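USER:
I would value a second opinion on how I read folds in token form. Give me a protein, with the fold worked out from its sequence. Write it directly below this note and I will take it from there.

ASSISTANT:
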Amino acid sequence: MSTRTVVHLLRHGEVHNPDKILYGRLPGFRLSERGERQAELVAEFLADNDITHVVTSPLERARQTALPLLATHDLTPAIDDRLIESDNHFEGQRVSVGDGALRSPANWPKLRNPFRPSWGEPYLKIAHRMLGAVHRARAAAEGHEAVCVSHQLPVWTLRRFLQGDRLWHDPRQRQCGLASLTSLEFEAERLVRISYQEPAGPSGSQVPGA
């Protein structure tokens, strides 16, 4: 008989970001009070699950999101750099429609190829590193469940890759809310099911730097 293992991809909770910049990999960005509550709600939701391994992105907001879950299951966290937020040349700037970063001619060369994308880490590279992190977590939790705490774009890129969808996409259409779970079910090493849940409730997809 094959072994069933589930790897949950948990997006971190809301971050305190009053200036609404794209914070990306910048240090010092912590969960807001709402984000801390979202992390608690996820831990409550997964309290009865057979979770034996929790691994996070090295960024503070991801490690914070994991804390209630670690306490609930009495686990020690691991860190996998492959779960980190995607690299982005607009890091530290305001990039919403109408903001200065996108209006500046100096930045237009960074926007020349949305299919790669030209403004940051290539989608295919993101998908490959995330898949490597997932399979390491799957092996560590074989026969049980693992949680990987990561970020919106890496989680969504991996999901599209696994579904056979094109990797470039409209960010407004991402199904990856704050503190959401994208769950990958494996039979041995074979992916058999992808599911999605929002234990902390729905949230908009357009959260700068998420």
